[in-house]
Amino acid sequence: MGEQPSSLQLQFVKIVEGRMQPMRLMQLFQVRFIFFLSTQINESLKNKFFMKKFIFPAFLLLFLSCTSTGEAQSKLLKPNDFESIMKQDNAVQLVDVRTPEEFNAGHLEGASHIDFYNADFKNRISKLDKNKTVMVYCAAGGRSASAADQFTSLGFTKVYDLNGGIRAWQSSGKKTVK
User: Fold this and answer.
1) Which SS3 state, helix, strand or coil, does residue 77 take?
2) What pTM does this model have?
3) In this structure, are 78 and 139 located in the same domain?
4) Which of 6, 69, 136, 169 has CA atoms 20 to 30 A from the CA of 60?
5) Given 138, 140, 145, 166, the catalytic residue
6) Nearest of 98, 91, 174 to residue 132 by alpha carbon
């Protein structure tokens, strides 16, 4: 039998397929690194040189990388939570990033259509209000995850992505309009 892929390799595949955001992989890596360091501490206590030259700087670097940079991040929400925020926030900017054909087949009520594959996509989303909540979705979650990253890179502070896209929305019995 062939060797099974590691958990980290499986997480990387999820990123490539658009099912996980790169920030999540970084968090998983940090947890694994902390575990590795903690298993080495007993041995390193015997070697003070190793402790001073490696362990302390590594923990310091890890601590600094885990602290917030103030950079906005998008949040992945299940359909019920996504719907809740849509109902609570009257000024929400709901964005469907699917193709025109997909949008015309059915979309969430009140959604604006900005095709992710359009060459003018980044320019069009940059014209939205950065101070208002943005809620983005696509068919299954891949395009909307990429779009959410673009929103945050443009300075949008409240960005929510529908986990599983409109398929998950419909599977949970929620309505769409044409």
Assistant:
1) strand
2) 0.61
3) yes
4) 6
5) 138
6) 91
